[in-house]
Amino acid sequence: MEVAAVRTHRHAAPLLRPFVTAARRTEAVEYLAIEVELRAGVIGQGTAADTKPVTGEDLASITAAVTGPITAALTGARGTIAELSALLARSVDGASSARAAVDVALHDAWGKAAGRPLVELLGGAVHTRIESDMTVSLEEPDVMAQHAREAAAEGYRVLKIKLGRDVDEDRRRLDAVLDAVPGARLRLDANQGWSVQQAIEIIGAFEADGLPVDLVEQPVAAADLEGMAQVRRAVSTPIMADESVWTAADARRIAELGAADMLNIKLAKTGGIPEAMAIADVARDAGLTCMVGAMMEPSITIAGAAHVALAHPAITMVDLDSPDWLTTRHPSGGYKVQEGWLALTGGPGLGMELLRPDQDPPR
Ligand SMILES: [Mg+2]
């Protein structure tokens, strides 16, 4: 492969409803689309959105990283996908969302040049479909109950519930959701919002009352792996690391400390596909399972994540509902979600049409 050019254009997609977590409130997804054109004329694409609460990157810093050091490093570069991906990883410090977007574009171009779906080039589809969830963001209990009902009506059986902003209210929120959708299974995400002691008490109470909780994500501060291990030992609900795991090295440390049963892999944290696959390899070797998640990101990123998810045996769950939050879904192709199950739709690379600059125009 030889990179002829890297191009960017800006977009904005309004959300159907605000997205609220313990860390932020979002009304529209502004994003940067990246095209990597190979010398052979093939164009791969990726997208990056503001991920400031997690990676510290906003659209301005992402744009600066892509149009500056990343474009400088890649333009005219030749090599295998592994070599180009490694070159990209070295081209800039941090900037994991920016690197992830360009890495997805490189991988899309790789697949298109080979005329094969990316999932095949990543080792083949070990799953034909994988169950996703619908996120219910952190609102008043009655609002969360209504959103849970809507998700269930769309066929989602698994709801991801954002908690952790005010501990006393979390249980009322959960009860409202379960009253609205009694058959739902829950993935809870505290986004680092609890202390170790709070986490043990809260999760213990959920267990005592038999709530249908499949897992609890990032109960305590990202850096407090010892504390998370303490929580894990004290409860029987599986604990998932999210903000604590960015790299394969993080995953190894989490496994060594027994800090989590599960890992949430997001391309915006890993900086690209090879590190995401490396985390899944660590998980497989340590007997952990993985979810592939995403930030509030558009469908090109999500398609890249879906190809990764379906290609690895240690990845058994996805949390890739963010495009369902957008008023538009551009471009078409890539993957579909039916009754809560995500599957790829085929085609070379990501299997998507090229996003046009006039789709999701910037506001
Ligand atoms: Mg999370």
From TrEMBL:
Enzyme class: isomerase
Active site per the UniProt annotation: K162 (proton acceptor), K266 (proton acceptor)
Pfam families the record matches: MR_MLE_C (PF13378), MR_MLE_N (PF02746)
Keywords of this entry: Isomerase, Magnesium, Metal-binding
Cofactor: binding details: Binds 1 Mg(2+) ion per subunit.
UniProt GO molecular function: metal ion binding; racemase and epimerase activity, acting on amino acids and derivatives
Domain Mandelate racemase/muconate lactonizing enzyme C-terminal: 141-238
Highest taxon of source: Bacteria
Cofactor annotation: Mg(2+)
Binding residue positions for Mg(2+): D189, E217, D242
PROSITE patterns: MR_MLE_1 (PS00908)
GO BP annotation list: amino acid catabolic process
Transmembrane segments: none
Family: Belongs to the mandelate racemase/muconate lactonizing enzyme family.
Full protein name: Dipeptide epimerase
